[in-house]
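hiii so um. not sure if this is the right channel but i have a protein structure encoded as tokens and i wanna go backwards to a sequence. like what aa goes where. can anyone help
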């Protein structure tokens, strides 16, 4: 079963995909969100579902450090509900606290320039989210 991992932001959606065995997550792309037409986001997700034969979504849930869900988390939950309604596929939220920090640390350790980091940070964060979920399932 292949799973699509999403790191949902206001301007971008980082996308990762699992291998068929559900062991590893790979970066796919960053979807630039359209302010004028949210349909474009869902059209691209539909294409990715077909391309990778996706059976499930894991969407990062940004929680506050004390575990509560703030406005950003509520927006991600609304997005997840819309993904579920539009695709008919199961959607699971995954605690993404510190995923962006882990992605930044990984890119810094790879000695990537600031400009390049900015271009890929969201898809690396999506990998961190999906890999965290996969690791929890394979224990």
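sure thing!! here u go:
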């Amino acid at each position: 079963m292949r799973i699509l991992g999403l790191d949902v932001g206001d301007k971008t959606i980082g996308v990762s995909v699992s291998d068929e065995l559900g062991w590893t997550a790979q970066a796919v792309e960053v979807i630039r969100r359209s302010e004028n037409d949210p349909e474009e986001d869902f059209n691209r997700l539909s294409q990715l579902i077909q391309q990778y034969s996706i059976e499930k979504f894991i969407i990062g849930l940004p929680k506050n450090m004390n575990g509560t869900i703030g406005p950003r988390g509520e927006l991600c939950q609304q997005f997840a509900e819309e993904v579920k309604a539009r695709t008919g596929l199961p959607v699971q939220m995954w605690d993404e606290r510190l995923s962006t920090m882990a992605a930044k640390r990984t890119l810094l350790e790879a000695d990537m320039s600031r400009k390049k980091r900015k271009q890929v940070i969201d898809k690396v964060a999506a990998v961190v989210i999906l890999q965290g979920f996969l690791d929890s399932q394979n224990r």
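oh and The mean pLDDT is 88.
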